[in-house]
Specification:
The complex is a heterodimer of chains A (272) and B (168). With 272 residues, chain A is of the alpha+beta class. Chain A has a six-stranded antiparallel β-barrel with strand order 1-2-5-4-3-12. The model of chain A has no long low-confidence stretch (mean pLDDT 84). The termini of chain A are far apart. Chain A contains five helices and twelve strands. In chain A, strand 1 and strand 2 form a beta hairpin. Chain A has one domain: Rod shape-determining protein MreC, domain 1 (Thrombin, subunit H), CATH 2.40.10.340. Chain B has one domain. The chains are: A alpha+beta (272), B mainly alpha (168).
Chain lengths: 272, 168
Amino acid sequence: MQQIINFVIRNKNFLLYLFLLFIALGFTVQSHSYHQSRFFNSSNWITGSVYETFNGFSTYFGLSEENAKLVEENKQLRKLLFNRETQNVSALDSTQSVYTITTGQVIKNSYAEPRNYITINQGEKDSVLPDMGVITEKGILGIVENTSGNYSSVQSILNEKSTINAKLKNTAHFGSLVWNAQRYNVVQLVDIPRLVPLTVGDTIVTGGMSSIFPGDIPIGTIQKFDLDTSNSFYQIDVRLFNDMTNIKNVYIVQNNDREEILELEAETINEQ
Amino acid sequence: MNNNYFVNIIRFVLLILVQVLVFNRLNFFGFINPMVYILFLYWFPVNENRAAFIGLSFLLGFFIDLFSDTMAIHSASTVTIAYIRPAIMRFVFGVNIEFQSFRLSNSTRAQQFTFLALLIIVHHTVFFTLEIFSFANILLILKKVVAIGAASIVLCLLFNSLFSAKKE
């Protein structure tokens, strides 16, 4: 007994080191196999408010640029609105619409790591919940992964763990959008069968099959495509419309029918 | 003594803020984010309680992790260099560190540089191995260790010459 105690005392630094290292590795491995940790992410109160405070200063420098972007987008939307043939009144009734939109601002963005997360200044109090889609005026950005009262952390499409349903705009063949962690302006579309005719420059949009994103949100254009190792599917490099390095205003999309869809899908699987 | 604690606390907070608010957003060439918070371990007094040092380093890494959504990779690599720091110091400075009067500022430029470089290389190797987590991508790991390591060393040296205590 005495010897054991002596051993512990003699090696207390080493044991402390091992203990802390195992805690750290535990968190890390857990996140590799599953989601980002529930508690240790930048959507919590401390980090959220630090980022928000400093973001308050830095936003001023890009105000005019942001304004120009928003005006440009308004112009697009006005054009759509004025060119509609019939004025659909029910579309203005928010209780009947499938998708609800919330706006938010990015307070922390990263794109240099293999697993990038974005923090935005909207949280549960603004009824932002996990698994909502996040888009910008140019294209998709990611999926909300964790939320706290006032902030939420978004799994960027520049994240090795992200898979998003996407399709070719002109043929509607769909596949999964993933990222190989190489370049921040190029993501990969996989699982498109080789019989599909492709050309460089084709537009890729969301597939609308995931109950997270509505369909037909722009993602990017085909930059180059190759057959994968099995020779039966394409591996497509997609150049993003979004400049992932410069994002300020975002829209959070909530699918009001999501629960119903998930319930139905779960029932169908159970019956098999 | 009290002054020493105070300086270290200030350093701790400032280095975290500088790291997450400035250097994590640098993205030089698209991927180079130097890690200057390692200076905390470089500057930390030599003859302080070692257990406390390891604990503090873990906390430092953990805060950086919280801010940058990297799970606990920073903590793991920081606690590793905190643990092996005495071994590195013995290697670099020889028996000098056994004396109470040893100070970093009394050693030569070359020794300081080797010490800092070793800390950063070990840290970055552990960090990017854990971050990328696959030996299939060993070239990517090497590329990141070399490029970001070089950037970290340059910036740490700059910060060191700006903020270190004056030689008397």
